[in-house]
């Protein structure tokens, strides 16, 4: 049952996904009385195929930020944003606009100015480069790469189930955060001095896409940020077995910071 004294929550997904990927987060927060609104970025509700690829090609992170702004307008007040992966990046951009009350960032994608700290991250960047002009097309999620970088603590069955629901993603979106130094529009630049709301960066020790060593550097940009490491959690942290314990830590942080 929702508690009217609590602020609304906007849930932001990672790349390739839709609102279904935040269902575990929604269940945890709504059980504690929060009212959740889960956003699916434009065209991410389309099934895999030529139509989805055509509509995603050329889309920017800026488009997804605009989707989030529109969702906030519809909510009618500044929400708490809980964002996974690129959703965490978007939360930082919104925080710099003073558009949110607080942000919980689950294994956030990197923002402009954050460099990789591990060989695995650099190897992932090299793989993207080897794909050619990926920023000019829609890109599918490679199962083996996901198993290595994002699903590595999940059961084989869950790995297959999640991968089956993921669709293609705008290559430009991937370019804008992986290779922010070459983005003429500097789409993922966040001025940390403009962020005044509380932020909680959550990083799984087994996240190979954005490991804790990199996530901590990103969190340290902000005076209002706290950093929490979750032992044994992968990039898709909301699907890990210990998610209920992680959710409890999020709820405790929210109770102390709202």
Gap from first CA to last CA: 19 Å
Unreliable stretches, pLDDT < 50, 5 or more residues? Answer: none
Structural class: alpha/beta
Please tell me the overall pLDDT: 97
Helicity level = 25-40%
Strand order of the largest sheet: 2-1-3-4-7-8
CATH homologous superfamily grouping: Alpha/Beta hydrolase fold, catalytic domain
Apparent shape: globular
Total E-strand runs:
8
Strand content: 5-15%
Assembly level: single chain
CATH topology: Rossmann fold
State the name of the first-level CATH class: Alpha Beta
CATH architecture: 3-Layer(aba) Sandwich
Give structural attributes.
single chain, 258 residues, alpha/beta, Rossmann fold, 6-stranded parallel beta sheet, two-stranded antiparallel sheet, 39% helix, 13% strand
Written overview of the protein:
Residues 9-240 form the AB hydrolase-1 domain. InterPro entries: AB_hydrolase_1, AB_hydrolase_fold, AB_hydrolase_sf. This is Pimeloyl-ACP methyl ester carboxylesterase. Pfam families: Abhydrolase_6. This protein starts with 8 loop residues before the first strand and ends with a helix. The chain has helices at 23-31, 50-56, 61-75, 86-96, 119-129, 143-149, 156-165, 171-178, 212-219, 243-257, and strands spanning 9-12, 36-39, 80-84, 102-106, 138-139, 169-170, 199-204, 225-230. α1 (23-31) packs across α10 (243-257). It has a six-stranded parallel β-sheet, sandwiched between helices. With 258 residues, the chain is α/β, with parallel strands linked by helices.
